[in-house]
Inverse folding.
């Protein structure tokens, strides 16, 4: 197999994997057309029966119960500004309830990686760009957020059970 053919096959396989993962991991939407179709069929059946008999059939089914999930609360946003390689206003301290969704938003005038220790998640920041670090606070404890390469502490997060 030529190197070009091998490269094309690798790209096609990678795209197939990405599409499969997207379809498997996307949030599912509730489809109601099937319920509407069965309701329509049940509605038309008695009308046909009523034309051939003297008493109408009473086979109406109650409409399917609709359950709506309450929308989750919006994520807790923690904003951190970095100027001159240091957190503006000092080290940010925040308390988070365990299970909460959180987004760290960091605006920096230096290029570095923002690292949330304990969760091992990271985002790059650079002058003129905003770093967003979303995570779910599943582990209780105290965790540092720092500019990784510079070793500068930006925030101290406490996750409480």
């Amino acid at each position: 197999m030529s190197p070009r053919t091998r490269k094309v096959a690798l790209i096609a396989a990678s795209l197939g994997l990405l599409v499969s993962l997207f379809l498997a991991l996307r949030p599912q939407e509730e489809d109601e057309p099937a319920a509407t179709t069965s309701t329509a069929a049940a509605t038309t059946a008695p009308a046909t029966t009523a034309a051939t008999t003297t008493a109408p059939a009473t086979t109406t089914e109650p409409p399917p119960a609709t359950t709506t999930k309450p929308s989750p609360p919006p994520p807790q946003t923690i904003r951190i500004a970095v100027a001159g390689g240091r957190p503006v206003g000092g080290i940010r301290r925040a308390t988070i309830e365990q299970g909460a969704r959180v987004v760290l938003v960091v605006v920096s005038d230096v290029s570095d990686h923002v690292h949330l220790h304990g969760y091992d998640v990271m985002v790059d920041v650079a002058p003129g760009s905003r770093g967003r670090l979303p995570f779910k606070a599943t582990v209780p404890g105290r965790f540092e957020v720092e500019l990784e390469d510079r070793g500068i502490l930006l925030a101290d997060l406490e996750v409480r059970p």
